[in-house]
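Predict structure. Input: TetR/AcrR family transcriptional regulator, 184 residues.
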Amino acid sequence: MDGRRSDTRERIRSVAMELFSEHGYEKTSLREIAERLGVTKAALYYHFRTKEDIVASLSEDLRGGVDEIVRWAEAAPEGPERAREIVVRYGTLLHSLGKDMIRFWHENQPAFRDLGFGTSLRYQFRVLADLMTAPSREPLAVFHARQALLAISWSLSMMGDLDLTDEESNAAAVAIALDIVERM
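Output follows.
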């Protein structure tokens, strides 16, 4: 039973992301999500009471994934290898969340800010960059670390119109980010 509930929640989240991408977050209603899924609004309410709850669940996936990277990095020895591995893990995380989620995140910054998710995500982003540049945390090195992470984020949100598979896009983004890391 839990497996079916989990599958349904994933379907809801996926359809919501499609609609948010097509119509925008503000212009998408729970009714439209339910209609696209072919379920009643009451069935949708069983899993998510509001659009904000859907976004919160997606945001939790991103925050939880970054938290895992942070835990790993805090236990790993400082240095260039750790910085490279953070980039690879960050690329894998964003790739696993999918282009629609990352694009939604970038295109709907006001919604994330209004819902209170943006601040914690920005903090986690800065923690990753600090871990990449420890122990010195020289400002220019931190700048490069942040740019490396942004290269991955932006590639997923801005390159969707290119004729590349998700795997090709992710591999290219991580390669570019690793090139930036070499400048630290």
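The chain has a mean pLDDT of 87.
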